[in-house]
Batch of 4 targets.
Target 1
Amino acid sequence: MDGELDLMASLEFNRHVECCTDCAAARQRVGAVRSAVADGAPYYRAPDELAGRIRAAMRRDVSPAPRQWRLASAARPLAVAAALVLVATLSWHFARSSRPSGGLERELVAAHVRSMQADHLLDVTSSNQHTVKPWFSGKVDFAPDVHDLAEAGFGLAGGRLDYVDGHAAAALVYRHKLHVINCFIWPAAGSEGTIATSVQGYSLMRFTERGLTYWVVSDAAPGTLAEFARALRASAATAPSGGDGIK
């Protein structure tokens, strides 16, 4: 009700309320109370001079501090700031080294959902791979392998620049019947196997092809993503080195 849920939790909550009459009624009651309080409760604004009187009273009640204490007090903000920087740095390194299980998968699903909700599905709209691939030049430090797989039932809609797992990623967008398929691509860090999983009703598949990591996300069935992966790999296998292939 306060709008403090993250994107995935908010979607899950809304899906639950759609099929739970008790929670839907509770949300309606809470909303009605909030509206009644906002519209009918009296509101009193403190007079402007009140703040001045409070500050004057505080100055009278606080005696001057010794010089040594004033110097220590002046140094305290610097020490606090240094401590905060240290804590933030350690926390960042700890978070990077201790990602919870499924953290990347949830981030990919969030990126997939966000791309459709925020009207940012495509930065370049084209089914022509010779148009989409050059668009990424200078935006990512690798050449994504772009193929139109319309003959296999996966039409290329275009692409966009996305940011996943702390780095830029090329996102190719395909359409299969009524489903949108996001294919996130970035350089492979090593030998990575194939993974097929699901997160909150979304299917995901990871595979590595010609030095690039592919993460495919959609609300389509897992078998559909497997067909997509086979079609993409078959098309990549016949692509020439350089040109429209991976450089």
Target 2
Amino acid sequence: MNPKRLLGIAMIVFAAAVTLIGFGIGPDGSSLKTQSAAAEGMGTLLDFALIGDTRYTTEQQQKFLNLITDMNKYDLAFIVHDGDIKAGSNACSDNIYTETRDLFNQFAAPLIYSPGDNEWTDCHRAGGNSLERLDFVRKVFFPNNMSMGQKKMALEQQERYPENARWTYGGVTFATLHIVGSNNNIGRTPEHDNEYVQRNIANLNWMTQTFDIAKANGSIGVMLIMQANMWDNTPPSELIGFGDTLRQMERDVLDFGRPVVLVNGDSHYYRVDKPLMGSKSMRRIENFTRVETFGTDDVHWLRVTIDPKDPQVFMFRQQIVEANRVKH
């Protein structure tokens, strides 16, 4: 074919492509604006990470450094830590919190943190003042509305409870809820019960507002992150601190109707399951999935991919840190 004719055809094809892009039409015929909203920052797929429950021992402190090195090899949108930065029986000294904050800032990606019970509720076990430690946790980890990590990300925060954060990414609405193990800090002293009552009200409001925002924005899914495992093997009489949350979560999840993932740590056993039951049907609620992150003694991480084309939205992959493998 004549080279000039080839050049002319190429110019026509290029002009057509530019025209399509100008009108916001993607290569698959969908709106570029829709694609961008569905998977902001990562094309059609978006990867982020989940960690928690580690640095309990001297061995794990070194393994946590290995974890940082491994995770920094990946292009992650953000990382969420679902609580417990030390063992519950360890002393709650100031340096534990400041050292952990500094380590969080070594992650390349933005890091969002939700406190666990070991950071404050359980501090009485080592002679500390739990409520004073809670104030210190907020001072160290939540001085402003920015994430930790080398790359910062702005977060929406709840008034008076800055640890409750919210953000939208990849077409999904995310929120942390300050709900912790040890029965959510209820049942030990009147002072602690009062703390629970106030924080419980705030958490319930934050959760429902999150679903309202998700519906208003047309989010393809919701992910909630907390520390407590509300379905562990503890007798129900010792889990009264979670009753309100479970009842409201059922209502909000059913009303939303799209995929909802709850991330928790607490019991140190990686799992993906469906423990939320309908109170009327007594059957599993299909659009709800619980993910529990790796925890002591396993210092690894969970990689999550958002796929807007997948009806389930979320894909979960174990990321085993080679340097942290156990020598069997």
Target 3
Amino acid sequence: MKPDKKHPKKKFNIGLVGCGAVGLKRINSLDSNVKLIGCTDINAYKTMQFIKNFDKNKNIKIFDNWLELINSPNIDIVIVATPHNLLSKITIAAIEAKKNVLVEKPGGCNSKDLLSMIKKAAKNKVKVHVGFNHRYHPSLIKARKLVNDGVIGELMFIRARYGHGGRIGYEKEWRLNPKLSGGGELIDQGIHLIDLSRWFLGELVNVHGYACNYFWNSQVEDNGFMTLKTKENKVAFLHASCTEWKNIFSMEIYGKLGKLDLNGLGGSYGLEKLTFYKMSPKMGPPKEKTWKFPLNDVSWNLEMRKFIKDIEFNRKSNSSLKDAYSALKIIEKIYKVSGYDYRS
């Protein structure tokens, strides 16, 4: 992307908290006007592996702890890519240090954490972006444009599935430890489905669902089923699962003039593509048009670029703390009726 001559790109220094796989993806998505200058992780081995893989010239400072990093006067933006139990604590401290923050979804383990973050971000006049990178997948961007252009008419409902099959030892990982994750598959992949459904349909005020554990020997759910409805009776029928065995992302958006069928996210989820089924005036078989997106996942790059511009031009974030708060409120309602109490 070429810099705007009227508004030359400002340079930003990044501090990374969390040197795992997601942290590495975030750093690999930085443009030339954004530079990583410091990192930290509670796991020293992860930090050293990160430095080995990313910083061959050893120009990045390794901070002893995240508090030292966020208080560094040289850092403009903090990226928080830790397990869920640390997200809100670190983000709130960064906000109070008057840093702009990109925090990974879900932003915290519960909605109360998000309320505190919303208030403190407003008070300290900083930008906080929640990492809902799926909004930035090319198929989702194209689908959103088609919906905005009225191509499929007034929306009626969404049907979506998202899941994977885990791996050997998955039940021992932090994502299935309620003290670290705040929940299971609903708060991990399910929150993406909720966020995307809210993005297309609007606020989901009527919540029905069930969280259950079928396979993995853990204290959290491996499947989440949801039927969510707006006040206009538009419905999102969603299923998130880590017993899929074959990775899947499928979202169908139904309008009164046609349907958008999104499949794949690249990599193990298969080729990312979008098919538009246009209703014929005489009904019957629809006309079809398919867009394929064979390139590597660029959602991380596009999301970071959007966040940087939000800071530069003081714009509203596309996926805010309020979005994460609304999604977590839905998840908490489902946990409550399902007999899961991860908050105690």
Target 4
Amino acid sequence: METLTFGSSSLPPLIFLHANGYPPAAYTPLLRLLAERFFVRAPFQRPLWPGSQPQDLKDWKPLSQDLLNFLEETGPAVVVGHSMGGIAALRAALQSPEKFSGLALLDPVLFPPAVILGWRLIRLLGLGERLHPLIAAAQRRRRHFDDLERLFNGYRRRSPFRYFSDEALRAYIQAIACPDPQGGWKLCYSPEWEVRIYLTGLSPDLELWRGLRHLRPDTLIVRGAETDTFLPPAASRVKQLNPRIRVETLERSTHLLPLERPEQTARLIAF
């Protein structure tokens, strides 16, 4: 499995799992900060594997098994996951807690049970692609770029990137743009995979809520104050089920908090 590494192998190990649509290099500012205290490995999850087929994914459980396989090779580690990566890490920690020396979930895609049941019904009716709020944008995603500086300037004006520093935005652009043999740059993370991840999430996640009260590793959840994903009702429910889980909120941040607030995020991850 292709992996980015940061820091010295003499430091305690940390595994970082990226979000849907955000390759590991997009988190370079955060990962460099974490590398001051950890030996950081950021594996490419299966949407970035050469030859991987989106239609083979039925739910997100294989992402957790991929992590457990990786931990078999590396040994126990602190595991940090953002969004999709957080859910992959949480499910793996419930299954094999002995492989985790700490768990940090950065704005995980953990919705209240009522939302999960609603999404199950939507998928049963075959309306997932029509009703998921992010799929249409993913399907329209631009696939080819001629000039990364022009792309940076265009993204700099977009609301989703309002809290990104210039360093963070450049890291994101360099991560999503791969050289195109035909000239220019192409999108590294395919829209087909992005859509498939959106479609196949949530449905089995009631099991995560059932398992939370028994979660054994020391666990931190960090949410953005302006997130549309890990919402206040979910945060309250987590704390009711398992008061040992620490939940922190970062101001002036959204679902993209590890890219928006790398310094504050790194300080909170202390196991």
